[in-house]
Amino acid sequence: MRAAVLHETGQDKLDVLDDVEAVGFGPGKVRIRIRATGLCHSDVSAMTGVLPQPAPFVPGHEGAGEILDAGDGVTHVKPGDRVLVCWLPPCGQCPACRRGQPQLCLAGFMNAGTPNFKRPQGDVFGFAGTGTFAEEVVVDGACAVPIPDDVPFDIAALIGCGVTTGLGAAVNTADVAAGSSVAVIGCGGVGIAAIQGARLKGAAEIVAVDPVASRREAALTFGATQAVAPDELPDARQRVTAGEGFDYVFEVVGKSATARTAYEMTRRGGTLCVVGAGAMDDPVQFTMFELFFDEKRILPSLYGGGDVLQSYERAIALWRAGRIDLENMITHRVALGEINEALDKMRSGTALRTCVEI
Q1: pLDDT tens digits for 314-328?
Q2: How open is the CA angle 83-49-337, to the nearest 5 degrees?
Q3: Which of 101, 122, 190, 277 has a C-alpha 20 to 30 A away from that of 214?
Q4: Residue 224's pLDDT is what?
Q5: DSSP assignment string, 88-113
Q6: Residues whose CB is less than 8 angstroms from the CB of residue 290 and which lie 6 or more positions away in sequence, other chains included
């Protein structure tokens, strides 16, 4: 089958090959025919080594498709069922799951260390234990979440990561208050979802911050009340909050510099929500005095900060009701063989979300 493979960490191009085989099928596993997958910035971060991932590997973790086969013990799906791929499925048994924090379950991360593809030259891993830049993938049964027939594969793929992450950061983690002021730093797919979440929660002012003009323009169509370049953010803080700072600031870039800026843009007693996936060797600094004196809440948000299965259902319900716009988040569509062009669009910032149709 065909799949896009990164041979070594640090390479900027993927090699689309037809000699890849999805392996590992057996009890508790499912084989999925991928129909659509989103290109998420985390895929690029894994390619560069910002996020740890053994190589060679097939990127992609935001996918949807059809069940081809279900192993013994898998009873919630059967061949022919339409599913989205959950890259971090809760096990339901670990301490994190039992105390109501299934997004912190580590069971899914264990899959990242087991190859789920192979080529004649040897084993190939799947990013985050999945690897949806492929025609087929074998994953744990819990990774296959059924979707209703009226949800297109491309919409389901977005819900599988970017939408759930950004929407959940605003709705679950930060729990944005009605009438509040919000700034979102970084307006790719996840940032746009966070903007839509803040709008849903009733934020009065939502300032979108991004260096790319096309993304700023797009943010205004998804609920931002104004959009500024990064160097214009201090002026926006003065206009919107009389210099006090925003009630909520979402950092959706994953860099210490933007996290520090986000902290400074947050009012005393306000909330900084860290959504961007950053590097292990990129520390951010705060003084002990400012942490004590400013009483700002720093809330990291992983995968939307809540029960992902409930978050999927909520996103579908909101999409059906027209309360969130997912179709227009997909700004580009490509075939698997055009994946490198899609990567270039993501790096340049010209794409919000690219759907790879497989």
Answers
A1: 999 999 999 999 999
A2: 50
A3: 277
A4: 98
A5: S---SSSHHHHTT-GGG--HHHHGGG
A6: none
